[in-house]
Design goal:
The structure is a single chain. The protein is of the alpha+beta class and 73 residues long. 21% of the residues lie in helices and 18% in strands. The protein has a domain at 1-41: YefM-like domain (YefM-like fold). The chain has a three-stranded mixed beta sheet. A hairpin with a 2-residue loop joins strand 2 and strand 3. The protein is elongated.
């Protein structure tokens, strides 16, 4: 899409946001210089419970006192 001047963007903000939501990048300019960009938000996939199953292993003694701290007990 061609750059849009700030004054024009003020008048057509709704349309510009709708274009961005459809995947277009909208560049807003002032005095022919790029000022801001309206881009679509990338949606994330929802997290799936249990997707890391089998990837993480916890040792049986993970919560046992550490040897370095025996003097403090």
């Amino acid at each position: 899409m061609a750059p849009v001047d700030l004054e024009e963007a003020k008048e057509h903000l709704t349309e510009l946001v709708e274009k961005a939501a459809r995947g277009e990048e909208v560049v807003i300019t002032r005095n022919s210089r790029p000022l801001a960009r309206i881009v679509p938000i990338q949606s994330r996939k929802p997290r799936q419970f249990g997707s890391a199953k089998g990837l993480i292993e916890i040792a049986d003694d993970f919560d046992a006192p550490l040897e370095d701290f025996r003097d403090y007990m």
